[in-house]
Fold this sequence. Notes:
Strand content: 5-15%
Number of helices: 8
Order of helices and strands: HEEHEEEHHHHHH
Number of domains: 2
Distance between the termini: 99 Å
Radius of gyration: 27 Å
Structural class: alpha+beta
Number of strands: 5
Amino acid sequence: MTKTLDTDLFDADSMVEDEPVEMESVNTMPAYGSKEWNDYIMEQFEARELIDGNPTCAGLRRVAEDVLGDIVSSRPAQVFPSTDANGPGRATVVFEVVINWMNMGQMRTFADVADVWHGNTDDLFCAHPVATASTRAEGRALRKALKVRCLAAEELTRKKDVESIVRESVKSDQTTDGEWKEEDPISMPQTNFIDSKCKQLDINVIEFINHGKESYTSINQVSKKTASKMLSLLNEYQNKSKNIPEDVLGYNANWR
């Protein structure tokens, strides 16, 4: 006698579908430099590595190695120490970081420069200008590698009004009659300071100076009085008392 299959076993109504398996969400890394990249990198810092939302140089170093690859070289490439025998003076350091990109054997080099003087550094660190400039320059190089839109914590000056100090210092750039006139064209120290701050904050200089009511084809058309207001605004951006408008972002080194 031939045995037959029990067709009830294959009745569609009697089949039990497997319950869907819930997959844990995977925290995938976005494309390098993409729109989502900055937020992703900022999420990698531990709370102890942030000061008022700004990552420390040590935190930048750790995250760079976690995300980008091993740091095979990290050193001051050039050092310009202070020559002022009567005080801490101004020191400038160019810092270079070499990364084994994604640990694939391709070396990528990132470098940046920082200067330290009494007007842009709190007194505790101003006493060690070369070391402070080195840390700041390293932080900037790592920020450049990580493509983050923030300052390193060591770049911030919290106990001094940098804008007021610079404004007083540029008064030494006087006209021939010995007076500092607000309606005169912007001075070179003001121009250099605006450029330096825009670079730190990833701000397009030309877009920034044209963000107000006036329109300029050249920064030389800006008056000293207006330049002082621009310096004050950049200081507020740096201290995060005001948000940087998105339409002025994107520093261009060839703006001159």
